[in-house]
Structures are given as C-alpha cells and as structure tokens.
C-alpha cells in the first residue's frame, strides 16, 4: 500500500472507528451531542443502610436518577420511556432547558415514548424531575436527578477540581400515597443523601459502608442539589470552610470563604473545599435543625494520603 493509502486509511477509517469504539458504553459524549435515555421504573428502592425498602418511582431505577453531564453549547437528546407495565403517567422536566413547558415536558401515559432535544446554553448545576400530577408525590418517590453543564473552559476563578462528588438531598415520606402530607411537609421521617439516610456517614450509622475520599490538600468540588419538597438546606462543612461557592453552579456566581451555604428548594450549587493537611475528617451537613444529622443528611469526607484514586472521578462522582 502507498504512503498516501496508509494515511487515508488512518484518517478516514481507523480514527473514526477508534472514536466510535471509545463512545460505546459511555454515559455521555463530549462531541456536542449528549444522549439521555430514561426509563421510568415503578418499583422499590433501598433507602437506609439497614436495607429498608420504599415504593419508589425512578429514572432508570436509582434515586437520584443518572448524572447528566454536558458542556455549554451541547445539544441534549432525550428519549423518555414510560413502559406499558407502569400504572402512572410521568414526565421529565430539565431545569437546564429553555423550551415549551407543555411540549417538551409533556406528561406521557404508560406505553408511550417522548423524544425531544434542547441546547444547554448556560453553565451550572441543574435539577431534572417529574412534573406529573401530583408533582410533590412524583418527586418525593424519587423522580429527580442532577445535570451538570460545564463551562467551555476552566479559569483561575473556576479551577479544575482534583475530585468531584454529587450529593442530592431529599425527604423520605414513609406514607408514599399521602401527597397531601407532602404538600404540608408533615409526616416525613428521614433525610436522604443520594437516596439513603446516612449513606456516607459511619459516624452516625454504624451500618454505613461508604465515605467520600480525597487526598490532603486536594480541591474537592461538591455538586449539591436540594431535592427536598419544602425545606431549604443550610449546607455547612464541619472542620472546614467552603473555599468557593458557585451559586447555581455557575462560575460567574462565585463567593469566597463561606461557612454555610444556603440552598433553596430545587436549587443547586457547586461548592469547593480544599482538604486539610494530613489525615482529617470533614462532615458535610445541613445545619437546618429540622433535618440535621439526626435524620440522615450528613456526609463524611475523609482526607487520606492513601485515598482511592478512582473516587471522585469519572462515573465515581456519584457513589452508589
Ligand atoms: Cu413521575
């Protein structure tokens, strides 16, 4: 084969093939198109470290749903399926989208599929959730998740973090049918972090098996979403100070040296902590006393020179 032939083969065949192979199985792509496939599961979810089961409605079977990541300018292609065997109508509403509420976010009956796309025009951390009536019940049962829209580049103010973690706080209403109670904010018992009470807090719950990890001196970025039905979160770091807080996760909304960040209902933020030197523990928790550590919304971040290098990276930004 001629030299030209080899070069042509490399550019036109091998390289695209390599890129295509890399994309297979990835949860998102970086080439300007992000494909999101959601299927509603009406089933049960484990909501405590003791294995307590809850009648949940979820996107793809997890509380919260899958993390959606994009870069400003990307087009998000959503395929939303409500399987025939389900009993409820559902929808998906992306707070990052600027579209027609009644078209793209329309509720669909079991046995239907809704497809739409939108361009992620603004950077930030956003909620997605079900809009179907009664909305409080669909959210309280688990139909929410986080979408991170990265800016096109990192800057001095918004530096590249060493590790990233997603934390989503929500309320557990044991009586899953009583949506009137959910509206009135009564009868809820536990605060969930990524779907479980005390999920990453062996200090308050000896059955907890996970913590967040980082090496000393690393910049750890927490993408935090308040998916509570009615209550704001006062997000505090015990034994530390938020180095930077980006309101709504947008780099232009930077605040420095914050002890406690206020995160309203359906609001999200990106919060940076630079971990202390040596072995150390920091507790990330809401200081709103109604749902403080006693109910499950506390998370341990361990700084350790031997911290697992895979934690806080790739698909491990949400520890399941
Ligand atoms: Cu729903």
Question: What would you give as the CATH superfamily of the largest domain?
Answer: Cupredoxins -  blue copper proteins
Number of strands: 19
Cα-atom radius of gyration? 21 Å
Categorize the overall geometry: globular
Helix content: 10-25%
How many distinct folded domains?
Answer: 2
Alpha carbon gap, first and last residue: 51 Å
Provide a count of the helices: 4
Fold-level CATH name of the largest domain: Immunoglobulin-like
What does this structure look like?
The chain has 4 helices and 19 strands. The protein has helices at 3-23, 101-104, 135-140, 179-184, and strands at 33-46, 53-59, 68-71, 75-82, 93-94, 112-119, 124-129, 144-150, 163-172, 190-193, 212-214, 219-226, 233-238, 242-247, 254-258, 260-263, 268-274, 280-286, 298-303. The strands form 4 sheets. Strands 10-9-12-17-14-15 form a 6-stranded mixed beta sheet, with no helix packed on it. The protein has a 5-stranded mixed beta sheet with strand order 11-19-18-13-16, with no helix packed on it. β14 and β15 (254-258) form a beta hairpin. The structure holds copper (II) ion (CU).
């Amino acid at each position: 084969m001629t030299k030209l032939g080899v070069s042509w083969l490399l550019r036109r065949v091998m390289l695209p093939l390599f890129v295509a192979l890399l994309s297979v199985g990835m949860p998102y792509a970086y080439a300007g198109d992000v494909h999101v496939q959601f299927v509603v599961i009406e089933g049960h979810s484990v909501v405590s470290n003791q294995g307590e089961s809850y009648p949940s409605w979820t996107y793809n079977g997890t509380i919260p749903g899958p993390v959606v990541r994009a870069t400003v300018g990307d087009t998000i292609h959503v395929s939303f399926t409500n399987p025939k065997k389900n009993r409820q109508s559902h929808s998906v509403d992306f707070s990052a989208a600027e579209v027609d509420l009644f078209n793209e976010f329309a509720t669909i009956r079991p046995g239907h599929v809704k497809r739409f796309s939108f361009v992620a025009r603004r950077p930030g951390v956003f909620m997605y959730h079900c809009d179907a009536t009664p909305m409080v019940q669909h959210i309280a049962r688990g139909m929410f998740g986080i979408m991170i829209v990265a800016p096109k580049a990192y800057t001095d103010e918004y530096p590249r973090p060493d590790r990233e973690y997603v934390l989503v706080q929500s309320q557990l209403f044991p009586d899953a049918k009583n949506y009137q109670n959910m509206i009135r904010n009564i009868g809820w018992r536990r605060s969930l972090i990524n779907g479980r009470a005390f999920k990453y807090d062996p200090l308050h719950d000896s059955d907890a098996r996970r913590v967040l990890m980082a090496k000393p001196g690393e910049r750890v970025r927490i993408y935090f979403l308040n998916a509570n039905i009615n209550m704001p979160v006062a997000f505090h770091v015990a034994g530390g100070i938020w180095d930077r807080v980006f309101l709504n996760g947008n780099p232009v909304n930077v605040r420095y040296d914050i002890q406690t960040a206020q995160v309203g209902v359906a609001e999200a933020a990106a919060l940076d902590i630079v971990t202390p030197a040596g072995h150390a523990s920091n507790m990330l928790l809401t200081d709103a006393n109604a749902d403080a550590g006693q109910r499950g919304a506390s998370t341990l971040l361990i700084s350790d020179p031997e911290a697992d290098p895979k934690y806080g990276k790739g698909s491990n930004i949400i520890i399941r």
